Amino acid sequence: MDPLSLGLPHRPPFIFIDEVEKLEAGLQAEARKQFSGEEPFFQGHFPGNPIVPGVLLAEGMAQTAGIAIGGPGKTFLLTAIRSMKFLRPIRPREEIHFRAKRVGEAGGLVQCAVEARVEGELVAEGQLILAAAAARRDLRPSGTIDNELK
């Protein structure tokens, strides 16, 4: 399944899911990603020894969690990383399988258990907190500094 059609609000170059493999709407999702090795960040992370950055793995898991609990017109934003462990480096061209499952909710916040696996081996795991995104609004106060200077 296409992550964009399932409500993922991100656009290239900031999509870290190639395909959603399973979805139980409101509860859990599974997705996959494979980095080609041609992405520009591998030039610096690390020259001659490319490793997928942990922050991008965490983002892929967060995007999977957002799809699990959200949907078209129902966007969730990452608000906290309660815990995250990276158990081994992931190299370009390794297929990463993300899983996210809703495990709790309180006060408008949703907690998800997340993991990443390569060939069945657990390579990262954690707990993320997401919150429903508010409708877009102008955050500027009605009185601006320009008005005060007149």
What attributes characterize this protein structure?
single chain, 150 residues, mainly beta, 2 helices, 6 strands, 39% strand
Walk me through what this model shows:
The chain is mainly beta. It has a single domain (19-149), classed as Thiol Ester Dehydrase, Chain A. It is built from two helices and six strands; from the N terminus they run ββαββββα. The longest helix has 16 residues, at 54-69. It is globular and about 45 Å long.
Task: List strands and helices in order, with pairings.
Blueprint (H helix, E strand, L loop, with lengths): L18 E6 L3 E7 L19 H16 L6 E11 L8 E12 L2 E10 L2 E12 L12 H5 L1
Antiparallel strand pairs: 1-2, 2-4, 3-6, 4-5, 5-6
Question: What can be said about this structure in brief?
Answer:
This protein has 150 residues and is mostly beta strands. It has two helices and six strands; from the N terminus they run ββαββββα.
Strand order of the largest sheet: 1-2-4-5-6-3
Relevant CATH superfamily: Hotdog Thioesterase
Strand content: 35-45%
Task: Report on the biggest sheet.
Answer: 6 strands, antiparallel
What is the number of beta strands? Answer: 6
CATH class: Alpha Beta
| Count of individual domains | 1
Helix count equals 2
Helix content: 10-25%
The whole-number mean of residue pLDDT values reads 91
- Helix-strand makeup class: mainly beta
Radius of gyration: 18 Å
Cα(first) to Cα(last) distance is: 55 Å
CATH architecture: Roll
So what's the overall shape?
Answer: globular
Query: Residue ranges: pLDDT <50 for 5 or more in a row?
Result: 136-140, 145-150
**H-E string:** EEHEEEEH
- CATH fold-level assignment: Thiol Ester Dehydrase, Chain A
